[in-house]
Amino acid sequence: MLDVRRLRLLRELAHRGTIAAVAQAMAFTPSAVSQQLGVLEREAGVPLLERTGRRVTLTPAGLSLVGHAEVVLDRLEQAAAELARSRQGLAGAVRIGTFATAGRTMLPAALLTLAGRHPGLEPMVLEIDPAGVAGALRAGELDVALVHDYDFAPDPAHRGLATVALCTEAMYLAARGERPDAPAERGEGVDASAISACRETPWIVATDGTLCGRMTVRACAAAGFTPRTRHRIDDFPTMLALVAAGQGVALVPELALTGLPAGIILTRTPLHRRTTIACRGGAGRHPAVSAIVDALRSAVPAGLRTGPAAEPA
């Protein structure tokens, strides 16, 4: 009989690529992971791994077994959800991952709603980059998480996860106005030429490797130029403060447009950012996850569209 815990380790190896990464994520030592995978190979009766020096890759049999492991782990999550639905009331800790903008604008209202509806639940929030959410969910460090992607920078699909669309925001080009002391202004309508008009302007771009940074670079490339990056900032309030100080222009999502500094002009672009709720495959019907999804939906600001936006032409 194949051991489920060892199947989980094999699945993580398929996702993470190295035994060291699996060990770090699952709170094992690398030698313990290697030992457990060796036991799994003996249980399977066929080689699951190919070892070349320090590198380990999965054999065709190993990859096939990972596919079956995904199904097995999904069914176990469904079983846990059914058992939870049979209990009276919701109680205990539930771990929620969020990115900064959603944590500031939607999560507080959602937590208030959750406390009123299910006072026995104990939500525990972790701010996490969306790139780390899939691994944290699979490892059991999170139960549900908010993630996002952008036009020109889609978040790759992750096996073993289920997602529910939450909302779609417009992306705005933020620039300094002629009067630095004037209240922030938001223009009406969509201006498809706003980005290309800033080809000679310094840009404030998110750090390398982030979806936001990738979106900005690719959006500028689609407009026919490479942005002249002056600052790399991930925090949108800091980004907007630098725009107000005349340090460059930036692309920012609609949820970040609160408490704007004076002297900023906002132009709506054809780009969008989409926010989704992610959980482990099979866990979507768990009553605690369903309660969080409902609370988050009630916290979406009026005017934001739910569901995906069309890709730019």
Automatic annotation (TrEMBL):
<dbReference type="InterPro" id="IPR036388">
    <property type="entry name" value="WH-like_DNA-bd_sf"/>
</dbReference>
<dbReference type="GO" id="GO:0003677">
    <property type="term" value="F:DNA binding"/>
</dbReference>
<dbReference type="GO" id="GO:0032993">
    <property type="term" value="C:protein-DNA complex"/>
</dbReference>
<comment type="similarity">
    <text>Belongs to the LysR transcriptional regulatory family.</text>
</comment>
<dbReference type="Pfam" id="PF03466">
    <property type="entry name" value="LysR_substrate"/>
</dbReference>
<dbReference type="InterPro" id="IPR005119">
    <property type="entry name" value="LysR_subst-bd"/>
</dbReference>
<dbReference type="GO" id="GO:0003700">
    <property type="term" value="F:DNA-binding transcription factor activity"/>
</dbReference>
<keyword id="KW-0805">Transcription regulation</keyword>
<dbReference type="InterPro" id="IPR000847">
    <property type="entry name" value="LysR_HTH_N"/>
</dbReference>
<protein>
    <submittedName>
        <fullName>LysR family transcriptional regulator</fullName>
    </submittedName>
</protein>
<feature type="domain" description="HTH lysR-type">
    <location>
        <begin position="2"/>
        <end position="59"/>
    </location>
</feature>
<dbReference type="Pfam" id="PF00126">
    <property type="entry name" value="HTH_1"/>
</dbReference>
<keyword id="KW-0804">Transcription</keyword>
<dbReference type="InterPro" id="IPR036390">
    <property type="entry name" value="WH_DNA-bd_sf"/>
</dbReference>
<keyword id="KW-0238">DNA-binding</keyword>
